[in-house]
Design brief:
heterodimer; A: 115 residues; mainly beta; four-stranded antiparallel β-sheet; 11 strands; globular; B: 115 residues; 12 strands; 50% strand
Chain lengths: 115, 115
């Protein structure tokens, strides 16, 4: 059902490297989100966007940055990866409708390990 | 303050039996939505069921039903006739207001179905 894609699925990288996690959706959704999840724990919202050129920080402070130049694309960038960034990153999107009933569609996630 | 509380970190259930997963929430908004998601070991988030704060009937989706008790601020998920494929982590989430699209998640409950 979900047409939202995240790459890579797994990434192991050394400290200090710059990385970009890709997220794309083909559903034409205006709203996109990045959540961070440690193993067996809850999801924390780190960034969201309500449309092109709109980005906001989420509830959990993050050293990552995002951009939204195209509706379908919402990449997340870490300028200098650290071991504390090791986590799963989940991208999600939802359509623009009023009423609040719209569910989030999630990608399969990127499991990031920083050594 | 925690917006979503799931007090059961892990549960075991026998195949074909029903299981209830607890979820309590905290909000001062009159309009809000409650969601349940399933996360198998593969990591993706699968939407299960939605309940709006103004919905008079408890939501049902196949084997999933939501026991919504507004005065108690609880939204428990009931899975009937458990199957081995139901083994996963289950998250309760809330959207506050009718124009805010972000979801806040609970810590999750791990369900293991035994044959």
């Amino acid at each position: 059902e979900a047409d939202i894609y995240q790459t890579p699925r797994y990434l192991v990288i050394g400290t200090g490297k710059k990385i970009t996690l890709e997220c794309s959706q083909t559903m034409g959704h205006d709203k996109m989100y990045w959540y961070q999840q440690d193993p067996g724990m809850e999801l924390h919202l780190i960034h969201y966007s309500y449309g092109v050129n709109s980005t906001e920080k989420g509830d959990l402070s993050s050293e990552s940055t995002v951009s939204r130049i195209r509706t379908e694309h919402f990449p997340l960038t870490l300028e200098s990866a650290r071991p504390s960034h090791t986590s799963q990153y989940l991208c999600a999107s939802s359509p623009h409708r009023t009423g609040g009933r719209e569910k989030l569609f999630f990608g399969s996630g990127t499991q990031l390990s920083v050594l | 303050a925690q917006k979503i509380t799931q007090t059961q970190p892990g549960m075991f259930v026998q195949e074909k039996e029903a299981v209830t997963l607890d979820c309590t929430y905290d909000t001062s908004d009159q309009s809000y939505g409650l969601f349940w998601y399933k996360q198998p070991s593969s990591g993706e988030m699968i939407f299960l069921i939605y309940q709006g704060s103004y919905d008079e009937q408890n939501a049902t989706e196949g084997r999933y039903s939501l026991n919504f008790q507004k005065a108690r601020k609880s939204a428990n998920l009931v899975i009937s006739a458990s199957q081995l494929g139901d083994s996963a982590m289950y998250f309760c989430a809330m959207r506050e207001g009718s124009n805010d699209y972000k979801l806040s998640f609970g810590a999750g409950t791990t369900v293991t179905v035994r044959a």
